[in-house]
Amino acid sequence: MSRIAVLVPGKIHERVLARLKEAFDVIEADPLSLDAATAGRIRGVAVSGTFGAAAIDALPNVELISSFGVGYDGVDAKHAASKGIIVTNTPDVLNDEVADTAIGLLLNTVREFPRAENWLREGNWKPGQNYPLSRFSLKGRHVGLYGLGRIGQEIANRLAPFKVKISYHTRSRHADAPYDYYPTLKELADAVDTMIAIVPKTPQTHKTVNAEVLSALGPDGVFVNIGRGWTVDEEALASALSSGKLGAAGLDVFYDEPHVPAALLNLPNAVLLPHLASGSVPTRNAMADLVVDNLVEWFGKGKALTPVPETPVKG
User: Fold this and answer.
1) For range 296-306, the mean pLDDT
2) Is 284 an annotated catalytic residue?
3) 115, 150, 174, 275: which one is catalytic?
4) What share of the chain is helix, strand, coil (3-state, %, to 5)?
5) Alpha helices in the chain (DSSP H)
6) What is the DSSP letter of 282?
7) Of 121, 152, 87, 114, which Cα lies nearest the Cα of 291?
8) Beta-strand pair 165-169/64-67
């Protein structure tokens, strides 16, 4: 196995590199810069980020592209599939961490905990001077989940003990889901006062959380995004927050990361995180291990552990 060449085309988790070097001949380079002989040796790729059609075409003998993260929109999986190449991602191992972050972000947004902590640290807590009561509470809310995949279901499981009502919108109804289903996002927004978005980046989800949806949530409404910034019209969101058409928002993801619009940075009713939902050492290590394990299993046993739906499953 040590003679099999695996390409790492850019920055990736250090644990991925360390484990790959134990099992493979690791080449760290831009695939478009490789000479023909080296490119021809490469049979696997470990990537965190973008790996498009040109990169795939530059490697005539690649068999598997192992992507770091549950989202793999940076990898041209359809093009890979057309060439019989497997693409894998790292689902499930981060579900709990992301769901925990969603609940934490929701609580911080509703109860203003980050602002209260900053207020204290700035020396404002003095005899007779208390932090103002938070405008909102989680108590009695109706939470709509935009997306009910693995992570969405984990979020729903965590919401249940808070005694909130839960509803959801997805492309189709989940027969076994014990929550009210709304066939359109607008209908969900009309029905709920809190929305959590957990959908992937696809052509169908582009800026679906728009001015109409945000307005439907209302002035006491709360919006949380733990999925992709691609889903949200950020200009409409900033406008809704500043005008009072929407009560508050908590965001872990943004449209053009790491750029965060100044219009959002300046809002007191927005809680902003730097895309850290899965950002703990144990979870990132588990993701790194799955990246490597997919390559090890493929070249050792001819079976990928977590192939994405678009690509052919061999072995």
Assistant:
1) 96
2) no
3) 275
4) 40, 20, 45
5) 14-23, 36-41, 53-57, 77-82, 95-111, 113-121, 150-159, 185-191, 211-217, 234-243, 262-265, 281-301
6) H
7) 87
8) unpaired
Q: Are 241 and 263 in contact (CB under 8 A)?
A: no
The token duo for 122 is 């700035």
Active site residue 275: yes
**pLDDT, tens only, 133-169:** 999 999 999 999 999 999 999 999 999 999 999 999 9
Helix, strand, or coil (residue 9): coil
Q: What is the pTM of this model?
A: 0.92
Residue 127 burial (10 A CB sphere; 0-12, 13-18, 19+): exposed
Calculate the alpha carbon distances from 291 to 43, 97, 151, 253 in Å: 15, 18, 19, 23
Domain 95-272 is found in CATH 3.40.710.10:
no
* Type of residue at 25: D
| Known catalytic residue at 115 | no
Catalytic residue among 14, 28, 117, 257: 257
- Topology (CATH level 3) of domain 5-90+282-301: Rossmann fold (3.40.50)
Task: For CATH 3.40.50.720, list the domain ranges present in the chain.
Answer: 5-90+282-301, 95-272
From 154, 228, 234, 284, active-site residue: 228
- Residue that has been written with the tokens 């989800």 in this structure: 205
Give the sign of the dihedral formed by CA 70, CA 75, CA 76, CA 81: negative
State mean pLDDT over 73-82: 96
